[in-house]
Write a structure and sequence with these properties.
- This protein is an alpha+beta fold and 325 residues long.
- It has one domain.
- The strands form six sheets. A four-stranded antiparallel beta sheet has the order 6-11-12-13, with no helix packed on it. A four-stranded antiparallel beta sheet has the order 9-8-7-18, with no helix packed on it.
- A hairpin with a 6-residue loop joins strand 12 and strand 13.
- The protein is globular, with a radius of gyration of 19 Å.
- The two termini are 17 Å apart.
- The N terminus and C terminus are likely disordered.
Length: 325
Amino acid sequence: MKHLLCKAFVLLVVTVPFATPAVAIDPKFSIDPASPSIDGLDITPDDVLEKGPAVYTQGRDLGLKDDFFAGAFDVLNALSYGKDPITKPLYFSVDRVAVGLPGTAVYAQAAPGVEEAAGDVFKTWASPIQRTNVLFIDETELGLIPGFFGDDLDALDLDQQPTPWTYYAFDSLSFSNDFGFGTRANDIYASLGQGDQKIYFDLEALGFDPFDDLDALVLLDVLNNGIVNPGVDQALFSLSTFSPSTFTYSGLNYLPGVLEHMSPSDILWTDFREWRLFAAAENLGLHADDELNALDTVPEPASLALFGIGLWGLVRLRQRKVRDA
């Protein structure tokens, strides 16, 4: 572990000075089963797509089911390539019925007569003072169909590709979750392709309800080995509207980041030992009962440098523990 962390730190120190101010945006995403761009043959709800839309990775290569016409398919609703910085700004999408707070881009895109927020990507600094968001990518830039009955962007990674791991979750109504009767929808999976998959982490280990549905994911797998390292790896995530841990399911009052009271737009942080609220729904410019569908972050040189410093700190702490043992 120590040598791997040292190696990662040295690599960052070498590469950060030459980093460009912004990374190339090349979105990978999925769309929900009701999206008209789903043809059931080439494009299915379990596929990772790119602009076009066109298939970037077949869902079956990730170990997902994709017999769309027989009803035996999975819905890919969270995606990461494991190299996401845990930082702001945040990039996200919403579902078909989200309306956003007045004055925000979500509110404008969801307004009657427009009703095309579900295919867009929005950007926010998640400020408790500003409580706003802006349009980052219009769905037409991705080749998606606008409108309330258009395409609904369901999972997102803006700037990465598998090297070699793909991390994901599927929704609770998927074939692989017994159409809502299973408890696999709160698991994070890792795949190398060729039809394999394994559980990277199960949210039940953090105290979440077994029937919760992980709906958006930002993941930093520091060693990029498909194995969770508690206290080292980190993630941001949200839960779907019909998760028992949300107030939209329980019927209780809304309390940001509190089990059975949280919003499906609350963003939570974990290091896979503990978890806490990272950003409340209203800080994103969303209503508490809006659903956040997809989430990503994009690395900047400053965040990469801080990440390297953090890794070095972990190395020094581990060395100290070994010396004091």
